[in-house]
């Protein structure tokens, strides 16, 4: 028996048995969560992992009995410290909320009331539940702010939501959630909206705080890496049912379900790249609750499914100590996971070098925006203030290679991409495309140059016209730039759809009929329509599920292999950049800090900023859960950039006043690897080898 | 904030100047000039020319305008052409009456509209919501001369509890006037009541769906506290704008309503002045209406900024 089932209703903080939840729809009730059984011990962090549509948020909302009006619990039991929650009245439930169960949601920017001061939003909950006086509650609010490591709690308590950053707001919400010392804390994707470095700091905070409290935590996320860092146990949810459950080490290291294996294989790793492996993908789509297969719900997408799998639905059963799985072939899987392992593929490609011809040369690009809403006094002292979004960045992209650009939000990576694409006019700098001068704006570029640079945007919902069929969207660049006959255009559209693995019957469909991943395939097909020499991909996979991300990364790698296109691949996701890129440039506050081959950048010596990004990266392997260095404080304003080295205000390896007064020099390490730092390369190497990153 | 206020007041002065040009052009310069109006259709050309010279109508238009503007700003609003009385005290007296009526209407429709809107939002898609939404739709569509007559036939003629005619004497105090104000105030309120109720319903529904209201619920705060502190405060912000925009509509409604009830307000005075082609009076009334409208918008913006910490005017 596993821990979950041996933990009885009395001993567990949260105990759920056979919970089935349905939404009433026009076509009858839709059972989106079915027969979920789990238990969380006091003080335990329980990770619930699943892709979008798996029902994990519905489960959380049913536990707190806060389902939307058309949702209801059909069967099952939910007990908190032995009390059946499903039988409580609304009034009793309201006394439970905030006192015994608290919740932290995904987007901190919208979860804090915009018109009430921060301190009061903590104080009001402790006044209600702990019966504290106004002044005692206000004092406790300050204590809680200090506890979540907010500097200057007294000042922050008097601020409003719009005056704080996302990371600070999430700390405030954690402070509210822990202020009443609850029995259960439900966190629903609490770091998904944050930057990776902020996420790392918040995860450290949650782990440290929870060691102090005896609160049980249900941690819901799509990110396997986050659970590996934080969780004690984990359950994997798929299409409304639990597929596998156990300790993090068991589930990640001795996986007993092909879906979990698939998910783990979808995540790009930082020690290998596209030349070594093709990412695992999970073919097909997650089934809807009204179209479930009769047998195992994962069988239609499972490479190892047999007839018996399709005939009867296997229950979630205890396979080993502390480990349950819903796969009936778990013993076969344990013996040999071969049918599920990644196929090795070596792209016929040499390691990054400087042999091939240069496609794009962008030198000393700057983009300044006028800053809005500045005071008169400031204007008189500094003159017209400028947001220095991109401030002297040079990159070079070679034929059929990928230049990855990585940095946190607001670092200037998207502005740089838009300048190269000609969507923004660079304030200064020179660009050359295949040896020819490239004007700064689209309006002044020749049709041939327009054809050669194409772009894929982050959000396919916004980049595809909802009124046009997806075929028409792909046709547009062909008609506008191709000069082809109607027959030839139609043929070319079919070829492009085939190239991005979409069946031809998708051509007449409208964007809303497609899934997010399919829409992004259309966007990629559109970008390839003109046979571009350079494709700029601005966070093309960030808004998608991991399994969809993996298939798109494979597609991009395949197309590059086939067409010889060069990519400028922009992402905040280091693992994705590592997987696809031959070269990587690291950006912070509009400047380049490190550039080199992907392998160079990912092995010491690193620039301290790269080092921080790397140690913040959540890796889906509990043995690799590193501590490393952390970045604290906020990214400084791009209007008044710090003096000397711009990174000095947050640099954990700052060496002294030289960092504050002098711009750092470029240092070479190996033929192509360059680091912009005051610390000598040898010293960085020594520090980072010891730091164990 | 002080700089913002100064800038806004500057804009109001600019607005009034522009309005004065339009009003002056529309009244003084259009065909059928003042002299013709005063002397009637059968005046001799000599008499007309003499009067024009006397009134300065033979001078260039811009000189006439600056002359008029100078006198207007210095408080010399001239004499009514029709009644030969000074315009300023007449307009101020009628403005006081209209203000009494408008204030009573505001005190009625703003709170009632908000309460109805919130009730509808909290009972969304239920019978109460459907009743309130239907009713406010009807109110929005009903013109004052129809709703006024309906109210008169119900309360004045049918039930005989309120007067049908509200022609109060000049300088009647509010307590004495109250009986006469009730029906006109309700009449002029109905359209705005409908707008406020519908707007409040829509914004309350939006706020009820926000993450921070869900977070407040899941903090276990009492439902009343969640509604008061977390929902209403944020939901009422847009309503303030609707109320301020509605003041322009209120002035329009006053003109009709005062006519229906024979109430001696600014609207009735304006209609009277237009009927008599009393150019001087029309100019004065129009300028007052523009000023009231601009100032009420400014008050609304300031109120909005006070209640919304995200807006800090600099």
Could you please describe the fold and organization of this structure?
The complex is a heterodimer of chains A (693) and B (314). Chain A is of the alpha/beta class. Among the domains of chain A are: 113-163, no CATH class; 394-424 and 438-602, 3-Layer(aba) Sandwich (Rossmann fold); 603-693, no CATH class. Chain A is 34% helix and 22% strand. In chain A, strands 6-7-8-3-9-10-12-11 form an 8-stranded mixed beta sheet, sandwiched between helices. In chain A, β1 (14-25) and β2 form a beta hairpin. The longest helix of chain A is centred in the last third of the chain and has 18 residues, at 546-563. The two termini of chain A are 38 Å apart. The model of chain A is unreliable at 1-5 (pLDDT under 50). Chain B is mainly α. Chain B folds into 2 domains: 12-73, no CATH class; 87-307, MetI-like (MetI-like fold), CATH 1.10.3720. In chain B, α7 (144-158) packs across α8, α8 (174-208) crosses α10 and α9 (211-218) packs across α10. The longest helix of chain B has 39 residues, at 223-261. Chain B is globular and about 85 Å long. Chain A binds chain B through residues 64, 66, 94-99, 101-103, 105, 107, 110-116, 124-125, 128-129, 160, 162, 173, 176, 373, 375, and chain B through 210-212, 214-223, 225, 229-230, 233-234, 307-310, 314.
